[in-house]
C-alpha cells in the first residue's frame, strides 16, 4: 500500500502544473486540438495576407534605393567613357527610358505572376539565377541554425542551472563578448588558423550537395563555423535568461518540493516554459544569418544569393536585385509563419497576439 502511494505521488497525477495551469499532457493536447480545429487556417491566412503589402513595400523601397545609386546598368555595360547617345540606346533597350512608376508597376505585376524578368548583365531569366543560388544560401543558414541549436541550447540551459556559480557567470560574460565580434572577423581568424596555418580546411571551392555530398560538407565547414559561433553567443544569452526565470518559477519550486529529479524539472517544465522564447530567438537568428551570408559568401567565393546580390548591385542589375530582395522577403515571412505556428502549438494563447 505504501509503495503504491509512493508511486502515485511520483507519477503524473501529482506533477506540478506547467504555465497556464492544468495537467501537462491534456493542456498541450487541447491546444493542438483547438489549433487544428479551425484556429490554424485563420492564423495562417492572416499571415499570408501580409505577404502582398510587405512584398510591395520592400520592392518599392529597393527600387527607389537602386535608382538613387550613382551610375546605372548602361554605364556598367558600356563603361564610364560611353557617350550620351550610346547610353540612351542601351537604356531604351532595357526599358529604362520609361517613367519610374511604369517601370516599377510593370515589374511588380510580372513578379506577382512569377516572372522576375531578365538579368541585365547575363540576359538569363532572374528566376533561373535565383534557383541556382538559393540552395547554397539555404544550406549555409540551415547548417548554421542546426549547429547553433546543438551547441548553444545545452550551454544556455547549463549556464541557467548554475547561474549563481562562477561557471555560469563566465559563460554569460563570454557570450557577451561574442556578441561584439563581427562574423566576418571570425571568418578571417578561422581562415588564418584552419586554412592558411594548419591547412585542414579549404577556403575556396563549392561542390554541389547533389553532386558530391561529402566534398560539399567538407567545403562548407569553414563558412558555417563563424555563423555558429556568432549565433551561439546570442542564443546562449537568450536561452539562459529565459531558463533562469523558468527555473525560479512557482511550479518549478513546487516540483522540487515534491522531490522530482532536477533533470526532469529542467527539461520537462522549465525548458517547456522557455520554448516560445527559444523559437523566437531561432527565428530572428535565421533571418540574421541570411544577412551574414551576404558577407561570408563573398569571403569564401560561394555562388549563393549574397554573392549574386552584391554582384547585381555592382553592375546595377535592377531585375536581379529586386528579385533577390523579393525572395528574401518571402523567406522572412515563411520563417515567421512557421515559428508562429510552432509557438501557437506550444502556447495556444500566443495565437491571439
Kindly describe this structure.
The protein has one domain (38-352): MetI-like fold (Orthogonal Bundle). It is 76% helix and 0% strand. The chain is built from 14 helices and no strands. The longest helix has 38 residues, at 262-299. The relative contact order is 0.15.
Question: Which key terms come to mind for this protein?
Answer:
353 residues; mainly alpha; 76% helix; 0% strand; disordered N terminus
Short description:
This protein has helices at 2-10, 24-49, 51-68, 73-78, 84-94, 100-112, 126-161, 166-179, 183-197, 213-247, 250-257, 262-299, 305-314, 318-346. The chain has 353 residues and is mostly helical.
Set out the fold topology.
Layout: H1 2-10, H2 24-49, H3 51-68, H4 73-78, H5 84-94, H6 100-112, H7 126-161, H8 166-179, H9 183-197, H10 213-247, H11 250-257, H12 262-299, H13 305-314, H14 318-346
Helix pairs in contact: 2-14, 3-14, 7-8, 7-10, 7-12, 7-14, 8-10, 9-10, 9-12, 10-12, 11-12, 12-13, 12-14, 13-14
Amino acid at each position: 500500500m505504501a509503495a503504491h502511494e509512493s508511486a502515485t505521488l511520483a507519477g503524473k497525477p501529482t506533477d506540478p502544473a506547467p504555465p497556464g495551469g492544468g495537467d501537462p499532457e491534456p493542456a498541450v493536447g487541447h491546444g493542438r486540438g483547438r489549433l487544428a480545429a479551425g484556429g490554424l487556417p485563420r492564423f495562417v491566412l492572416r499571415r499570408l495576407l501580409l505577404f502582398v503589402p510587405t512584398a510591395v513595400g520592400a520592392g518599392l523601397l529597393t527600387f527607389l534605393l537602386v535608382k538613387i545609386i550613382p551610375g546605372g546598368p548602361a554605364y556598367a555595360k558600356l563603361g564610364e567613357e560611353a557617350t550620351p547617345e550610346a547610353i540612351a540606346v542601351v537604356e531604351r533597350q532595357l526599358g529604362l527610358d520609361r517613367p519610374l512608376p511604369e517601370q516599377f508597376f510593370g515589374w511588380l505585376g510580372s513578379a506577382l505572376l512569377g516572372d522576375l524578368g531578365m538579368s541585365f548583365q547575363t540576359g538569363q531569366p532572374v528566376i533561373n539565377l535565383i534557383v541556382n543560388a538559393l540552395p547554397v544560401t539555404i544550406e549555409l543558414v540551415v547548417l548554421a541554425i542546426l549547429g547553433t541549436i546543438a551547441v548553444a541550447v545545452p550551454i544556455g540551459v547549463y549556464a541557467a542551472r548554475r547561474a549563481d556559480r562562477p561557471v555560469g557567470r563566465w559563460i554569460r560574460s563570454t557570450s557577451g563578448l561574442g556578441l561584439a565580434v563581427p562574423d566576418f572577423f571570425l571568418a578571417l581568424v578561422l581562415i588564418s588558423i584552419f586554412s592558411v596555418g594548419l591547412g585542414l580546411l579549404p577556403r575556396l571551392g563549392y561542390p554541389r550537395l547533389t553532386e558530391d555530398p561529402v566534398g560539399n560538407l567538407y567545403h562548407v565547414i569553414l563558412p558555417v563555423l563563424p555563423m555558429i559561433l556568432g549565433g551561439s553567443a546570442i542564443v546562449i544569452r537568450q536561452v539562459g535568461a529565459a531558463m533562469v526565470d523558468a527555473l525560479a518559477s512557482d511550479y518549478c519550486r513546487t516540483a522540487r518540493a515534491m522531490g522530482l529529479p532536477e533533470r526532469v524539472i529542467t527539461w520537462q517544465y522549465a525548458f517547456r516554459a522557455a520554448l516560445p522564447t527559444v523559437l523566437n530567438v531561432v527565428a530572428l537568428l535565421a533571418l540574421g544569418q541570411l544577412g551574414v551570408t551576404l558577407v561570408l559568401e563573398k569571403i569564401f567565393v560561394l555562388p549563393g544569393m549574397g554573392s549574386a546580390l552584391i554582384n547585381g548591385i555592382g553592375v546595377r542589375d535592377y531585375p536581379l536585385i529586386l528579385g533577390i530582395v523579393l525572395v528574401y522577403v518571402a523567406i522572412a515571412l515563411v520563417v515567421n509563419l512557421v515559428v508562429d505556428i510552432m509557438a501557437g502549438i506550444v502556447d495556444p494563447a500566443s495565437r491571439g497576439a
